[in-house]
Write a structure and sequence with these properties.
single chain; alpha+beta; Beta-Lactamase; Arc Repressor Mutant, subunit A
């Protein structure tokens, strides 16, 4: 039985990957190949760093969307992104469905409402590739109209080796070009943002309350926080009431807004 990988278009797409001579053309050829494997609503290739803010290597968003979803994201809220947390893990998967790797209350979090829901993505598959001890590339393949089917998910997994090889090539060319750039490193910004997150509320909250605040901001439920911290759910609720009172807020929205406001000042 013939598959779409037997088609002349697929082999032409692979030929385009082989022919490509720079990072941009390789990225364009890779997206052409993925588009033949599955229909999608857009892609984004990010470099997540342990000691610097993420960098966008390639994307297919329109300018307005890029400004809203990428520029704002890199300014600090990436610290709350489950994908960033996943990319920094040692035991990360090579390819995964985003929805399978998010905290249990992520879709109720303000981060999701402000930065994910507005992208109108119904589904997302991510390819993850470590390119150094401190950097992981992630290729996001999004779907707006409907969820990926099992057949489509299997098809994306089938082309994993091709995708990863292209990601390697893109990074090699990107990092070579970047090595010639003598601009100031961005590690200082990341340190300021990370310190902002870690010390948020420190003048009014206890260490345990700050720990719970960080998990709430990332979309974890009371039960999930209790499991992670090995305390009773009722104890988490008491801490949550206390930290809300100390911060003079009454909702997750106000907590998120307060944090983003502090980030913006960092």
């Amino acid at each position: 039985m013939r598959t779409r990988f037997d088609s002349p278009q697929w082999h032409a797409a692979i030929a385009g990957l082989v022919r490509s001579g720079d990072g941009q053309s390789t990225a364009n050829a890779l997206i052409d190949a993925i588009s033949l494997a599955v229909s999608h609503g857009g892609t984004c290739l990010l470099a997540f760093h342990r000691n610097a803010p993420p960098e966008v290597l390639h994307h297919t968003l329109e300018p307005a969307g890029a400004k809203h979803y990428l520029d704002r994201y890199i300014a600090g809220p990436y610290l709350l992104d489950p994908l960033y947390q996943l990319a920094m893990r040692a035991d990360k998967p090579r390819v995964c469905r985003f929805r399978d790797e998010t905290p249990d209350r992520f879709r109720s979090s303000e981060y999701y409402r402000q930065y994910c829901e507005r992208t109108h993505l119904r589904d997302e598959m991510d390819f993850l590739l470590d390119v150094s001890d401190d950097t992981t590339l992630v290729l996001v393949v999004g779907r707006r109209e409907k969820m990926f089917t099992k057949v489509e998910l299997d098809r994306l997994k089938l082309i994993e080796s091709t995708v990863r090889a292209a990601m390697h090539n893109i990074w090699d060319r990107w990092s070579t070009r970047k090595g010639k750039d003598k601009s100031e490193p961005r590690g200082g910004l990341h340190r300021r943002l990370t310190k902002c997150f870690e010390t948020f509320g420190e003048s009014r909250l206890t260490a345990r309350e700050r720990e719970i605040t960080q998990l709430l901001l990332r979309g974890y439920s009371t039960k999930s926080i209790a499991r992670q911290l090995k305390i009773a759910p009722g104890t988490v609720m008491v801490h949550k009431r206390n930290l809300f009172a100390k911060l003079d807020i009454t909702s997750q929205y106000e907590l998120f807004s307060m944090f983003i406001d502090k980030l913006s000042r960092s």
